[in-house]
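Researcher: Please predict.
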Amino acid sequence: MGRARLARLHGIATSYEPSPGRSVQIGDDTVIAVLAALGVDASTPQAVRTALAAHEDGTGRALLPRTVVIRARRPPGRPGPLGRSGLSGLPEGTVLRVETEGGGTGQEADGARGGRSTGRELPAGADLPEALARLPLGVHLLHARAPGGRTATARLIVAPDRVPAPPGRSHGFLVQLYSLLSRQSWGMGDLGDLADLAAWSGRALGTGFVQLNPLHAAVPGPPADPSPYRPSSRRFPDPVHLRIEHIPEYALLAGPARSRADELAARARALRAEVLEGGALIDRDAVWTLKREALELLCAVPLTPGRRSAYCDFLAEQGQTLEDHATWCAIAERHGTDWRAWPDGLRDPRSAGTARLRPRLLDRIDFHSRLAWYTDQQLAAAQRAARDAGMGIGLVHDLAVGVHPSGADTWAQQDAFAAGMSIGAPPDAFNPRGQDWGLPPWRPDVLAAAGYAPYRELLRAVLRHAGALRIDHVMGLFRLWWVPEGRPPTEGAYVRYDGEAMLSVLALEAHRAGAAVIGEDLGTVEPGVRGALAERGVLGTSVLWFERDYGNVDAAGGDQAGQETGTEETEGRAAAPEARILAPDEWRSACLATVTTHDLPSTAARLTGQDVALRERLGLLAGPPERERSRARYELAEWLGELARLGLLPEGAGDEEAAVRAAHRFLLRTPARMVGVWLPDAVGDRRPQNLPGTWDEYPNWRLPIAGPDGLPLTLEELAAAPRLHALMRVFASMDR
């Protein structure tokens, strides 16, 4: 009982439900391991008693919580902020004083630039909630002085009630940037291609956004992990996406440097031809080898005074965060990319050994800092191109759920990550073995103690040049499945995060960036989460094939009654009569609606049965092949019948292209605020970009966009493709 109580006090669930009505207890070994990752010893009964006493003496008797979260200017009649903030139990006579961001003028604060005021005293008693809610938005300092001389200080986060809403209703493309090659790119899609796609689609097709895969910095290879969802750092984009010729210093190359740059460009053309004409896969390592040498040449070119000034401003703005990232990159060149295997003196970014090494690495640190600057500039240019083309949103960046355990972020922020833990998913009816994603989780206690600074800095970084942000596995803002190192995913446990605080920080940073937020809420979602997200203005994600009524009402979730949205885990579920297809007007409006995603079969593959054939060939079917084929045919026939019944399939059910257009007409019948078109669907690509459950068996994250024949298409060919234009005419009457 004592250990279970200790677990609850630290947000660790001691049981979970793999299916409705079935509860599984978490083993003591797992609970002990997870508590240890949070710095709590629960290995013996005496240790448990000591830990409980320490909690009672510490957190239990603290005058202030480590972070106080307030929603500003809540509408009349809504609950006040004190219950959630942790200020409701203050001793009578406690005096509160606030030091605000931005000079304490009462105007909206900008924590990135504002200073602090000398402070203001808050009224006590019944007037306190209103005074707190009228504070300017931002991250302030709250000081408390209780009778008897007890004092405390906490971060006070005052956040908007909601994230910004997307402007009007819009449609746009979803694309994996590496897969989008033009005649100018160096073997994989780049930021020049992104800017061109945005400029063309915004002007010619009236699109309002382009949603991307995560562009986070990868762990360098070779071999580099091609997955964009296991990055070294989420705080900086990867320079592999740079368009080399668009860097201003490229025009200043002369002599041998110019000759060498021309040679590299010629090799890049050959690499591009191998992908587009020779059937080769996208080779990120080969692309980076060429670009890295070209960037070495460019970084040797002296910056003009204006460029030097802009670079210095960037360095000053990014500060210690960039210095740490660039230092990790520089040390990794000497000692490898796993900092856990570095010499002892270098495993800590604040150690004396690291401090002694930094001066000897200044040139390399400057090189990697320059690459971050170049990439930031080209991302800004791509967002400007999107907005100049009339897009109301522009770029929708993707925030991966975590980072690689050996990468730059875990080195620089070691205290914030739970050592020896990995996040994943528990066993359920569709994956009885559970999942281990190999990504270390953030420690919720450290986040709270730091005023959520690591999270705030991350959001600020990814929102720099974004009109909207997609958050992968948004349920992780509330809880994550922690798996102790060396154990199977079946032996994990859920660890809770402060969802109110996480959402408030998200609302604050999205407000500052003027960006909408989309949560990827597919799969297993605990009751109440979708409602909490919707209340804060976070859009959900709805995929055509999985919008059905299974009768599992999430009364607290704010969804349509009985609505369930699935992922690849639910893809194989037979469509039982009671699991009816939701009518378009039953869909939620606060969502990004799509027919498919990067983790699912393309629509053409589903229509032709090639998705089942691929999984059969790789041994991934959940049951006998004929049963799976029959199930797929049944579900497809049901959907085609529904599209025909609604009058959305006038060309006939036997026409693949007509069926793709009908599926998107269905999306337009829903009230969804954003409607996304998977770009490969627009040209009939049969192959998924990622096939969950595979590694070497399938070329995940390495395929260029191709037509129905499997032949790659350039951006120029995409822009001229009759099939794409026929599909996009479906959106011609959409309100924008």
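Model: The radius of gyration is 26 Å.
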